[in-house]
Design brief:
seven-stranded mixed β-sheet; 38% helix; binds S-adenosylmethionine; alpha/beta; Rossmann fold
C-alpha cells in the first residue's frame, strides 16, 4: 500500500502550530525564559523540541548532562529540572551577552549548585572535559558539529545519548550545493558530512527526528569512534 505521507512535506505547518499550541505550556521560570527568548528572537529550541527533550529527560533521568550552546539558559533550565540532588549539568557558551543572562536565570531558579556554566569556545573547552555524560545536547554553530562530534562521543558513557539540533538547514539540506547561497555553503557542506558519517556508522545507533529544524540523535554503543 502507498504511504501517502512519503509524498508530502514531513511536517505540515498546521501540525507545527498544533505541536506549539496544543501541548501544555511549561510553568514558572522555564516558561518565563522561553517567552522572554521568543519575544526577543533569541534562538532557543522551539516548543515542540523542548517538549520532546522534557519527555526524554523525565523518562531517562540523565544525571550528568553536557550542553554546547547555552544562550540564555532555556534548554539548560528545562533539562536541569530533572536532575536529582547529586546530578549536574555543564553548559558552554562563548557569547557574554547570552551567558550573562543565563547566569541570572540559573541564579533566580536556585540552580547554581547544579549547573556549571563554562565561558568560552567549545573548541577549546571540550578537550579539557573528562567525564562520562549520560546526555549531551549540542546546539551551537552548525558548521562545527562535525568537528565537535569526536569530542562528544569521547565524553558520552556507553549507552549515553547525543542530541544534535538544527540538522536540516531549514529544509535545504538535500539541495544541490550550487543552489545554496555562498554565505551558508560551508554550513550546508559540513552538515551533509555530519549526516554522511553518522547515518552510515554501524558502531552507533542513530535516528533523525523532524522536530524544529531536525534533531540527529546518536546512542553510543561501542568505544570505537568511527567519526
Ligand atoms: C541556538 S543557541 C542555544 C540555545 C539553547 N540551547 C536553548 O535552546 O535554550 C546557540 C548558542 O551557541 C553559542 N555558540 C555557538 N558556537 C559556539 C562555540 N563554538 N562555542 C561555544 N558556544 C557557541 C552561541 O553563542 C549561542 O548562544
Amino acid at each position: 500500500m502507498l504511504n501517502e505521507m512519503m509524498h508530502r512535506p514531513v511536517v505540515m505547518e498546521s501540525i507545527v502550530q498544533f505541536m506549539r499550541e496544543g501541548q501544555l505550556p511549561f510553568e514558572g521560570q522555564v516558561a518565563e525564559i522561553e517567552a522572554y527568548a521568543n519575544e526577543r528572537g533569541i534562538p532557543v529550541i522551539p516548543h515542540e523540541t523542548a517538549k520532546f527533550i522534557d519527555f526524554l529527560c523525565a523518562s531517562l533521568q540523565p544525571q550528568r548532562i553536557l550542553e554546547i550552546g547555552t544562550a540564555i539558559g532555556f534548554s539548560a533550565s528545562l533539562m536541569a529540572q530533572h536532575l536529582r540532588n547529586d546530578g549536574h549539568l555543564t553548559t558552554i557558551d562563548r557569547y557574554p551577552d547570552m551567558y550573562e543572562r543565563a547566569k541570572e536565570n540559573f541564579a533566580k531558579q536556585g540552580l547554581n549548585n547544579r549547573i556549571e556554566l563554562l565561558e568560552g569556545d567549545a573548541a577549546d573547552l571540550l578537550p579539557q572535559l573528562d567525564e562520562a555524560y549520560d546526555l549531551i545536547f549540542m546546539d551551537s554553530a552548525k558548521a562545527k558539529y562535525i568537528e565537535f562530534l569526536p569530542e562528544c562521543m569521547r565524553l558520552l558513557r556507553l549507552g549515553g545519548i547525543l542530541i544534535i539540533d538544527d540538522v536540516f538547514q531549514g529544509g535545504t539540506i538535500l539541495h544541490d550545493e550550487k543552489k545554496i547561497p555562498k554565505r551558508v555553503r560551508k554550513i550546508h557542506r559540513k552538515l551533509n558530512e555530519l549526516h554522511q558519517v553518522v547515518l552510515t556508522s554501524k558502531e552507533h545507533r542513530s535516528c533523525l527526528i523532524p522536530l524544529g529544524d531536525g534533531l540527529l540523535m546518536i546512542r553510543k554503543e561501542s568505544d570505537k569512534i568511527d567519526f
